[in-house]
Every structure is written in C-alpha cells, then in structure tokens.
Amino acid sequence: MNRRLMAFLTLLLGIVPPAFAEGSGSIDSGDTAWMLTSTALVLFMTPGLALFYGGMVRSKNVLGTIMHSVFAMGLVGIHWVVIGYSLSFSKGNSFIGGFSHAFLNGVGVEPMGSIPHLAFVAFQGMFAIITPALITGAFAERMKFRAYVAFVLLWTTVVYAPVCHWVWASDGWLFKLGALDFAGGTVVHMSSGFSALVAAIYIGRRVGYPKDQILPNSLIWTVLGAGMLWFGWFGFNGGSALASGALATLAFVTTQIAAAAAAMAWAFAERIRTGKVTVLGVASGMVAGLVAVTPASGFVGPMAALAIGLAAGVICYWAICLKPRFGYDDSLDVFGVHGVGGTLGALLTGVFASTYWNANGKDGLLLGNFDPLLVQALSVVATAAYAAAATWIILKLIDIAGGVRISQAEEREGLDLTQHGETAYHL
Amino acid sequence: MKKVEAFIRPHLVEDVRAALTDAGVKGLSVLEARGFGHQRGHTEFYRGAEYQVLFVNKVKIEAVVLDDQIDAVVSALLRVARTGKVGDGKIFVSTVDDAIRIRTGESGNAAL
User: Fold this and answer.
1) How many CB pairs under 8 A join A and B?
2) Could you tell me which chain A residue has the CA closest to the CA of B43?
3) Given an 8 Å threshold on Cβ–Cβ distance, is A274 in contact with B53?
4) Engineering a disulfide at A309: which of A87, A251, A289, A414 sits with its beta carbon 3.0 to 4.6 angstroms away?
C-alpha cells in the first residue's frame, strides 16, 4: 500500500493507518511545496509529448499531432474537475467511484495526508490529461479532430476513471488485492498502450503505409520533447509519494537511473542490429525506461531500477522491430513503448519490490515471494483486456455517430490544413 | 554564349564558386535539387525500420558564360567537383541565343 492510497483511506474512512500517522491531520508546508511543484512538472510533460510526437510525423501533420496532446490540457482539465476526479477517487464500488465529488463538491483545502485535498486533485488531474494524449500517437496523421475530441472525453470517462479507481482508490478491487502501481504503470501506460494497439488496428493503416516514404519531419523536436518528458517525470514518479522526503527521493532517483539505462540499452541493441546508434533510438529508449520504472519507482531500490531500465531498452526496441510483421500501423509506436514497457514494469515490480526500500510495499519474487508477481500479472491482464475492449466500443460508437477517420484526399493534404486551417512551416 | 548546368555535391558548392570565379564567371545561380543518377539513394534507419531514400540532395549550378570561357569553366568544374566516387554529378552545356540586362537593356555579350 503506498502513501497516496493511505492518504486517501485516511480521508474517506477517517482512519489513520499506523505507518502514516505522523503526517496526517495537518498540512505540511514542505510536502505541499513538493506536490505543487510536481503537479507543474507533470503538466509540462504534455507539451513535451506534443513535441516528441510532433517531430516524428510528416510536416503536413505537425500541428494536428501537437494538437492531440495540447488540446487535452484544456479538455481533460475541465473533465477532471467536473466528473473525472469524482469517478476516479470518490467513494463508489470496487469498479468505479461515485458522483459525490462531481464539480469538486466537498473538495477543499482540508488535509489529505499532509497536503491539501485540492493539491491531490490537481496532481492527479495532470495524469488524467497526459494518458489519453499518449494514445494519440497510434492514430497519428489520420484521425478526424472532432472524433479525437469525442474519443478523449469518452475514454477518460469509461477507461481512465475506472482503471484509476481499481488501482488507486481504497475501495478499488485491484487496490484491495494489493496490486503495486506506484505512479501509473497500469493506470497510465498499460491502459494507454493497449488502447493504442486497438485504436491503430481499428482505424487502419495510413495511406501509403508501409510502401511510401513516411519520414519524420524533424527529430530535433522529438529530442526536445523527450527531454521535457524526462524532466517532468521526476514529478510524475517523485510526486507519487504524495509527500516530500525519503520515498519521493527514492522514486526520483530510480526514475533517473532507469531512463539512463534504457537509453543506453536501446542504443546498444540497435548498434548490434543495424550498425548505427540513432538519435530517435536514444530518445525512445529514455521514454521506454521512464515508462517501465513508473510502477516500480517507489517500491524498488536503485540497482533494481538499473535492471528494469536495461530490460526496457532492449525489450521495447525488440517489440518495435517486430511491429512490421503484424501489419498494423501504430504510427508512433505507442504500444511498443507504453504497452510493452508498462507491462514489463508492472511485472518487474512484482520481481524487485522490497520492503527494505518501502515498508508499505511488498517483498517480491527476488526475496522469495511469488504472490506479488501473480497479483501484478492479474492487474496486467485485467487492465489490458478492459482497456482494449472499451476502446474498441468507443471507436465503434464514434464511427457510427460521424466517422473516425478523415477522407483519403484530406489525408494526402494533411491534418494541419484540413482539420485546423494552419500550416506549421512557412519556410 | 553558353549555358552551363552542373549538378554537384552540396558540400562542394563554395569550392566550385571560387573556381568558377577564377575562371572568369561573373555571375551564377545555385539551386537545391533532389534527384537520382547512378548513385541512386541511400539507407536511413528509424526505430529499427530501414528506409530507402530514393532522391539524393544535390546542388544545381547555372551560369551563362562567353563562348571562349567554356573550356576553362568545364575544366574548373572537373577539377573541383570531382571526388572520383559515384555521385559526383554531371555537367550540361548548351547554346544560348541572347542575354539581356534588365537594368540597362544591354544585350549579347555585354549583358553578361
């Protein structure tokens, strides 16, 4: 059980778990300062993602691709305070929260753990914003804008909120089973990764894929975006301690180590396979390591993070190299990085978790306990199956209501001009 | 009056400009071009996938010179733009009927 959950338990049930007693009941200024900082760091990841994805598409689709991330900052930002937070975290059943916090009803600056309740709402809201934005790389360069808007609203309601509730709310069923997800390996990365796979298959390949030359317009943007993601991820994982101090430091450092290790592992793997180390490979490796360490970051030690990062770099690269054999067009490899990396991280959390590093965590397979790995595997299967099925249904409904995909003529002209009436480069 | 159109390697454009100036050329145009010849394309890797880039970046130089300059211009190009590897490019020479300077209306050799 991590501190985020305890804080929530404290608020909901009015009980104070012993390990958490010292911080509860009053607001700590240091903890609040770190959480507000972390919230801003996580927000910064979304424009980072916009650039990460924006650099990889063709120049006629740069703005449309960036829009898929930055529009969510407004759209989900509102959804979260109207209904998203309540469905995710208010008291409900084991599947989904209720409506008691709709429109932030009953949410104020009262202490939740050692931070104000509203700080918790804001921090969690940033996760809800970036998660659907991650999916958009799968249907890049061919999605109708209004279909995207409908998709993000429905997906946040029907997939994000329930899965978040399962794992992080005290009455969620995976929480009660003891699934370990420190900062969103299942909630954020697996849910988005498997949804992305389904979305890529549902919407179909881009015109000309894989025959035509579909080359990145500028990998410079992609590297800048990857750097912003790494920077923001310190808040994503470090902030998931929901307090400043020892646990936040552990998550911060494991995040750093895993990102570095995965970047090097990816570079090494592609050097062996193709003879060259690419900039896109190093940037992708960073993100793969960050994804994989996310569920583990507050439950494992630094050397476990090194192992997780190395594994993520090699395995995600391998997953991406396999993609062409299956024929689907997950354009920006959301499944290969977030689906595969998230699954790997969730499972390895069950292997490397240690109560030496987090007394509220578990001892995993390496310390002789098989059960945590089983629970992790169950959370993986449940999240993947649910996210995939729900995404298919959402896309089907949008398709019936007005179509998911732009016309071939529009696709040839590009998203920027046809969907937004703008052009990225007037050079 | 002759027109010289030369496709050369982009990184040699400064050297070629200097050599042609020495050969007496008073003005030229530089155009960025993409195309293929015997060099064909090259291979790029993105996320493990291999892409055959079919059109190679070249620079096209255009200059109109006096009839008696053409041999010096061509030999300057051959000297400077040649690396000896496939992809050094080609030179095309053609005859030009006339040239007119817009500012003054002068024509013929005087306009060059």
Assistant:
1) 31
2) A274
3) no
4) A289
